[in-house]
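## Example pair
The file below holds two records. Each record gives the amino-acid sequence first, followed by its C-alpha cell line.
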Amino acid sequence: MKKPDTRIIYHICQISVDAQGVVRCSDSDILIIFFGNLDHLNASLKLWIQWGVGNHERLISINDLYQDLGISLSKALPCFHAITECDYTPAFFRKGKLRPSKLLEKSVEYVKRL
C-alpha cells in the first residue's frame, strides 16, 4: 500500500467534527485501508468513495459497506488484501481472489486469525 493512501486515511482520522466527505481513487488499496481503520474515525463522519471513470463512475458509501461486511470481516480485509494481491506482493499464481474471499466470508476462524 502506498504512502499517499495511508496519509489520506490519517488526515481523515484527525477530523473530530460532524462532516461528510468524498475520496476519489482508482484502486482498491484506499478502500481496504478505510475498512481496517473505520473504527478510528468519528462515528458521525459520513464517507463516500468516488469509484470508476466516465459513465461508470459512481459514489459508494464506505459507512454502508462497513456495516454490511461487519466489523470482524472489515478488520480482516487489509491482511487478506496483502496476502492475495497487494501492489508489492503478487497474487497467488493463477488462483485469483474469488475462492479465498469466499473462504474468508464463510469462516469465522479465518477472520479471527487475520
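Second record, same layout:
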Amino acid sequence: GTHQALANSTNQHIFLQTLRVKMENSQIKRYVRALIDTGSQKSYILKSTAEFLKYRSKRQINIIHGLFGGSELSQKHDCYDVTVSNNSYSCTFEALDQPVICNEVSAVFHGVWTEELRLLNIQISDSYDDAPIELLIGSDIAGKLYTGKRYVLKCGLVAIETLLGWTMMGKIPLEKPQSLSMISVSLFVNNASITNLWELDVLGINDPAERMTREETALAAKEFFLETITIDVEGRYEVRLPWLEGHPALPSNYQMAKKRLENTVKKVINDGYFEAYDQVFKDWLNENIIEEVFEIQPTKVAHYLPHRPVIKPSSATTKIRPVFDASARERDSPSLNQCLEKGLNLIELIPDILLRFRRQSIGVVSGIRKAFLQISIHEADRDFLRFLWSDSEGKQIVYRHRRVVFGINSSPFLLGATMEYHLSKMLKESDSKPFSKDTIMKLSDGFYVDNCVTSVANDKELRTFVEEASIVMAEGKFDLRGWEHTHQVQDGNLDISTSVLGMKWNKENDTLSLNQDDNTTEQFENKLVTKRMMLSQAQRVFDP
C-alpha cells in the first residue's frame, strides 16, 4: 500500500512542486491546484472535486497506509480515471479519492527569484493564491511528466519543467526568518486590504467563497482566447468575445436602442453637433472599424448597443466621440456586459508598474493610438455589437462593430491578452528582428491597458528603447506614440507635468504627486461623510 505522506502540516518556508491544471469530464471543467509527490506510490483526487466533476467510480479498492511510527491504517477508496491538461498537453490516469489530501501548501509568490525567472522566460504554473490542493500526482504518474529541463536559480530554488507546466521547489531563502516572516505577513495583510477596497469600489461586494470561481472563469477565458486568436486579411489580430459559460439568453435590445437613438439625435441636433457626430461614423465606415448591416430585422440572434456622445470642445483632436452602453438591459434580462468575462482586476497592477517606473533614473511613458480599434472582432460575434444611427435625412442605419469596442467590460482583457500574445510571439522571433529581448520584457512589464510606463538607465538606453519598442508594437499594427520622459522640458517641451496612471508627474523634478482637485476639502464641507464618499476619494489616488 501507499502512505498519506502529506496529510500533516507543511513547512511554509519550503516551495513544493505545485501546478495549476484543468480537470474535465464531458462538459464540466474545473481549474485546480495539483501537487507532485514522488513519495506517494499512487495519485489522489479530493473527494469533493471528484463529485463536482461527476466522475464515475470504476471500482473500490482497499489500501493500507503506512504512517509514521510504523502504524498502519486501512482505508477504502473509490477509483477514478481523471483527465488533466494545460494549453498544450493532456493526460488521463487513475486516481483514488481522499477526503483531505494535505494542509495549506503555499503557491509561488514574488521574491528575489522572480526577476531571474523572467529573464529565463519561465512562467511558473502555480502562482495564484493558496487554494486547497485538489489533486496529488504520485510516483505512478510523475516520472512520465518530467521533460528533463531544470534550472538551479542563484537563490538555491530549482525550477523544473513538466508537460503540465513549470514548477519550483526548494527552501525559500530567508536571511532573517523571524523578522522577515513578520514583514511578509504585514505586507500580505495590507495588500489584501487594498485589494478588497478595489473590489468593493470597482467590482461590488463579493462572497469570499466565489474567489476561486472568479479565477477559474478568468483562466478559462484566457485559454479560450489563446485557442481562437488569429490574424485577419489586414494583418490585424482577430479575437472572439469571451462569453461566460452558461450565461442567460441575451435579448436584442432593439427597442431600447431605438428609443435612446431618438434622444441622442435630438441632443446632438440641439447642441449643434449632429454633423460632427455623423462624420465620426462615416470615418469609421471608411476605415473598416464598422460595417453596415442591411437586415434591419435579422432572423438570427443579434444585440444592439445604445450610444451617446461625449463632447469635449477644448480637445484639439477629438471634440466628439460615441460611448457605447454595454450595461444597458431590458427588464428581467441580462446586459451584454453581464454575459462576458471581464478578466482580472487591472487596478491591482498599478503599484507594481509605478515601482518599475521609479526603478531607473529616466522615466518614460507612451500610449497606443486608438488601441482597442486596432484589434479585429471575429465575424461570429459582430452581430452582438450592432448599433443604430440616423442619417441627415432621418433614415435609420444599422451598423455593427468590426473592432474591439471601448465600453465593453471585456475589452481591457482582450487588449491586454492580445498584447501579451504579441509580445510573446515577438520574443520568440527576436533573434532575427531589429530589437532586443530586454525591450520586449520592458514592454511586457510596463503596459497598463494602452499606456506603457517604464524606466531606463540613461539617454542611450532611452533612444534604443523608443526606437525598438515602436518597431515591436508596429509588428502587431499598434502605433506606440506620445513619448514623454524625465527632463523632457529641456528639449523645448513647455508642459512640465503630465499624468501617469492617474498621478501627476513633474518631468523636470521627476516627482510624483497625488492628482487631487484643489476643492477636495470643499466637497466634504457641511456634508455627511459616507463610506461611498471615502472609497471614492481613496480610489482617486490611483485613477487612470
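Notes on the second record: Confidence is low (pLDDT under 50) at residues 1-11, 175-212. Residues 177-203 form the longest helix (27 residues).
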